[in-house]
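**Protein fold record**
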Amino acid sequence: MTGGDAQSQVPSWSRDVRWIYFESDRSGQWRIWKVPPEGGSAVQVARNIGGAAFESVDGKCLYITSTGEIEGHLEIPAHRLTIGMAGRVRGDVLAAEAVAMGMVEGNVDAGRKFVMRASARMAGSIRTPSLTMEEGAFFKGRIETV
């Protein structure tokens, strides 16, 4: 898809057809990248996570499907992260928006908003301008609203 010795897989188009998202091992580990369809330099979209990436219908969210547990710092500052009920993140998260239904062990920095559903469990710090915590969610840590 993009040349070189790296492997690339699971391509998907952005809704505005300006980008092709794909997973590649070009950085030495499987990560999510995007590249213009006419070619050019690939841009890493997410750090410390690989998987298939698909944009929402309105193009405002990037959905990443990944199996297993995510360890390490996860950076998707322009997108929304949703941690499913069986999901587990061990490390810090930087995202525009984040929704937790599973477990988070680390700090969350959500630029727009962070939502903890009733099934969520979290130990760490939250930094966000907007926080929603459903009844039943467990949280141990510090909250900073900005």
Notes: The radius of gyration is 16 Å. Residues 7-59 form one domain. The chain has a mean pLDDT of 88. Residues 82 and 99 are 5 Å apart (CA to CA).
